[in-house]
Amino acid sequence: MDDRRQMYETYIKSDKWKLIRKQVLDFWGNRCILCYSDYNVHVHHRSYDRLGNEIMTDIIPLCAECHERHHWVIDELREDPYTQMIRTLEMLAKPRPPEDEIPF
Ligand SMILES: [Zn+2]
Ligand SMILES: [Zn+2]
Q: 8 falls in which pLDDT band (50, 70, 90)?
């Protein structure tokens, strides 16, 4: 088990986490952000960079089903749907190159 994993395991059992988990669920409205189900809601870390000092968007609530699918997607693409969405928006916002820069 590496250090990060160890830290996570310890953290997840702490009272601080219980509090943050509750805040996260309150913040997101206690339901899955992908399908809005309030059944069997898990919390998923999008980033572990601020472990112990997370901001609300580091952690998202997902129902068991979406959580499983979400991890499958991450394993497949190495990034989560939220990041992809941002990337797509950035791409759309980018101005097209002027005609004479198109290489053909
Ligand atoms: Zn869901
Ligand atoms: Zn997860």
A: confident
